[in-house]
Amino acid sequence: MVELLDGKALAQKMQAELAKKVTELKRQHQIVPGLVVILVGDDAASQIYVRNKERAAHAAGFKSQTVHLSESISQEELINVIMTYNDDPSIHGILVQLPLPDHINDKKIILSIDPSKDVDGFHPMNTGHLWSGRPQMVPCTPAGIMELLSAYSISLEGKHAVIIGRSNIVGKPMAQLLLAKNATVTLTHSRTKHLKAFTKQADLLIVAIGAGHFVTKDFVKAGAIVVDVGMNRDDNGKLIGDVDFDSVSQVASMLTPVPGGVGPMTITMLLEQTYQAALRRAAKN
Ligand code: GUN
After folding, report:
1. Is 181 assigned a catalytic role?
2. Quick check: CB of 169 below 6 Å from ligand 1?
3. What is the value of pTM for the model shown?
């Protein structure tokens, strides 16, 4: 029988603990962790993600605000908005929801965020820290996956971890976090030839390719641990992962569900990193 890696339950537990730490931070230092989420345009999926982030932040006692900007905002205007939050001492975390409209260069936007407030861990300064082995702000989805694996006491030492997907948000930082735990890492992607030949070797398979039910049991070695990062909609609008759950659960030993697996952990790590940034601020006072 496959065991589910229950991200929802772990996220609830971690967010409840975080709420207590936030109360303590307020009591001892009169500091409330402040998060601003910047949303440009009207992308339906982004609006849902942003609403979930804000709801969780409020529940944990954060000061959280969403700034909703018009699709037609210029790059320069958006950078100016970010600069005001860079300079605002009550804000410890700044998140710009991606994707951005085509006329805006997301690399330039990310560069304009103060690295110490970059709770998404996307700024090249934070990427560099991660790859040089001194992680500071780490992209939230891979950080959440590491927490989930750790909560289930899954040892990574010497294991073969295969990742499908090489994005800056998931695949690439995931590779570095797994390397740091002494896994052997193979990073595959949409152009990889003979993909199954790699995935079938995986002790741990992380799937972040963005295609609904892409991975079936013939990609998976018996007993493997499978983590599904996918968030896709099927023809009926139902949320489905990149992994065909019914098929893969016949061979995997452990598997994350969608929803209720990786998604809640991403939000938890966003809050955790905003809290840590507020804590560093308290230490400076
Ligand atoms: N869009 C999809 N995932 C993410 C994420 O983790 N952070 C941001 N800012 N945008 C996203």
Report:
1. no
2. yes
3. 0.97
